[in-house]
Specification:
single chain, mainly alpha, Tumor Necrosis Factor Receptor, subunit A, domain 2, Rhopdopsin 7-helix transmembrane proteins, three-stranded mixed beta sheet, two-stranded antiparallel sheet, disordered N terminus, transmembrane, signal, glycoprotein, transmembrane helix, GPCR_3_9-Cys_dom
Length: 418
């Protein structure tokens, strides 16, 4: 462009010289050339100043597409990016990098700092807009919430059916074998265990936050202490029913039944301390999920929560140990093996729960708790009661035949009507 301009100027000068020689004098011709030189110099000066525009007190080189070569070594950074200067190069040289997570740049180009979205907002994929986060929780209208609700109600209904079978056949040897009262208490506590998982589903409120773990801790304590009492009953029926034993009065006086209220009272003391010092409350989690604000129940005192879980673990471990020791007692009606399997399933579920619980966040924490409650309750129901229902409903003739031949032995060893 400069060459063309120079050639044009030269050609113009020659042509003008020819014309001026004819039309004006030599003094006028010199004056004309002087004015032309000043105008050309002013043109170059103005063009030079236009190329260096002030931006925030710092000179910035502006690219004119008609100028060759180009003035810039970097292209401008668009929205969603910020510029980072390259060390060792001119100030006009920089790199464009995307804004960090939850930051945007949407107003000007070549921004050196991105703007961070508010805590209740998140940046879109292009990093140019902040979008308001939606409130989320484990709702029974979501697919996962509906599945968990269905499982909770389904297991509850199944347990009610088993209770109905036991009540209808309460005089059969299988039902009488290991203390009907404890069986009824265990079935009712399992119904409540399945139903308490519904407290974790839906929009949290102060009442549900307090009831979630207090009800869970109480009903599972009743269930596990009942299993422990049933295991003690089995052990006593085979170990201390011989004539002359001093501890025979424990079995006759139904002493194992007192295990349930005693163990439950201890758990209620833990829960009372928990509620009195640092009870659960509604909390907002803005960091676990990028596009959502999670409404959760904060457990308050984490130490108290783990004390409740630890006490349940002690009951489960004690029941499992005792049931394992008496698992090989000889009798058709011995349920020690079933108790052993049930406690093994229960312990496995909650041992798995702890590391998973520690590594999850947001709604996944609630889902983990609900699944653990349902799985452990289903383990107790399936291992202890479903085999008995099978015998009652499908093998009743064989059981009655066995009972009639061994009535005296059965009543001495296994009858819970002491």
């Amino acid at each position: 462009m400069d060459i063309i301009y120079s050639n044009w100027k030269t050609a113009g000068a020659v042509q003008n010289s020819t014309v001026i020689d004819v039309a004006i004098s030599e003094e006028s011709y010199n004056l004309y050339n002087a004015v032309y030189a000043v105008a050309h110099a002013l043109h170059d000066l103005l063009l030079h100043q236009a190329e260096f525009q002030g931006l925030g007190g710092v000179k910035r080189l502006v690219h004119f597409p008609w100028k060759t070569p180009q003035s810039l070594c970097s292209e401008s950074c668009g929205r969603g990016f910020r510029k980072v200067h390259v060390e060792g190069k001119a100030i006009c040289c920089f790199d464009c990098i995307p804004c960090s997570e939850n930051e945007i740049s949407n107003e000007t180009i070549d921004m050196e700092q991105c703007l961070r979205c508010a805590d209740n907002q998140y940046a879109n994929m292009q990093r140019i807009h902040c979008i308001k986060k939606r409130v989320a929780f484990l709702s029974n209208e979501d697919t996962l919430g509906m599945i968990l609700t269905f499982l909770s109600l389904g297991f509850s209904g199944l347990t009610v059916s088993v209770l109905g079978v036991f009540l209808k056949h309460r005089d059969t040897p299988v039902v009488k074998a290991n203390n009907r009262t404890l069986s009824y208490i265990l079935l009712i506590s399992l119904i409540l265990c399945f139903l308490c998982s519904l407290l974790f589903i839906g929009h949290p409120n102060p009442a549900t936050c307090i009831l979630q773990h207090t009800v869970f801790g109480t009903v599972f304590t009743v269930a596990l202490s009942t299993v422990l009492a049933k295991t003690v009953t089995v052990a006593l029926a085979f170990r201390v029913t011989s004539p002359g034993r001093r501890m025979r009065w424990l079995l006759i006086s139904r002493a194992p039944n007192f295990i349930v209220p005693f163990c439950t009272l201890i758990q209620l003391i833990f829960i009372g301390i928990w509620l009195g010092t640092s009870p659960p409350f509604i909390d907002i989690d803005i960091h676990s999920e990028y596009e959502h604000i999670i409404i959760v129940c904060n457990k308050g005192s984490v130490t108290a929560f783990y004390c409740v879980l630890g006490y349940l673990g002690c009951l489960a471990l004690g029941s499992f140990t005792l049931a394992f020791l008496v698992r090989n007692l000889p009798d058709t009606f011995n349920e020690a093996k079933f108790l052993t399997f049930s406690m093994l399933v229960f312990c496995s579920v909650w041992v798995t729960f702890l590391p998973v619980y520690q590594s999850t966040k947001g709604r996944s924490v609630v889902v983990t708790e609900v699944i653990s409650i349902l799985a452990s309750g289903a383990g107790l129901l399936g291992c202890i009661f479903l085999p008995k229902c099978y015998v009652i409903l499908l093998r009743s003739e064989k059981i009655y035949s066995y009972h009639s031949k061994n009535k005296k032995h059965f009543e001495t060893k296994m009858s819970s009507e002491y």
